[in-house]
Predict the structure.
Amino acid sequence: MPASLDSFRRSLPTAVGLLLVAAAGSALACSASTSPDLSGTSVGAPTVMGSGSVHSYLTTGRDGTPTELGVALTEGALVGLPAAITEFVIALPAQATATPYTHAVINWQPTGHPPMGMYMVPHFDVHFYSITQSERDAMTPADPQYATKMLRLPTGALAPTGYSADVMGIPRMGLHWGDPTSPEYSGQPFTSTFIYGSYDGKLIFAEPMLSKAYLESKPAADVKPVKQPGQYALSGYQPTSFTVSFDAVRKEYRIALTGLVLRSPGPAMAQVAR
């Protein structure tokens, strides 16, 4: 057999193998390119705040699932704030229905609030509510059942792990639940923390709380884990962390619920993120 023909036959399996690998790679590339990319950011209507504005946003991954729900404040939003306690109501994007949250509220606290020695500095309470504005407005002493509903706590695994509730509630907010392991409980200066809120036996808000001075320091993606309840009463994508950051390109401060995971009512989880 001529040497050239023999060499050709010996090299044929390798050549075929390379062609098959190339074809498979091409098929995968085509498959990936035809899969729709649903990643992006949806933005809610802006609200005037200070000398700037604040708006909500929802970020989704390639498959369209929510990854981050937050509020973005322009640099001017921290300038010219009122001298009195002020509430800023923020609409969420329509896509936020994939989460249990209906609207956001920033409560500006120019002189802080109790407990004494912990939160008595200018700061922002950023509430993400899972009840409607009208339901929140009904949470007042005008309701004959107000006191009973305020003191009715989530029971068992529905309560946030490791948290304790205030002894007094606040109209249109509810009871606030704090984490005794947060640094400010041991005398360290308050920068940021995560609060839960309840009313009538249900958790009704998730609340990153942060000092104005800390936000003005323009932190770079400060991510902190969020302790979870052992069981969920509401369906939707809910946070396993919260993130505070400054976007130097957009010149925006961002406070967000992050690490969103799909939750649904059901038996208590065997393991809870801590």
About this structure: The chain has a mean pLDDT of 88. The longest strand covers residues 202-211.
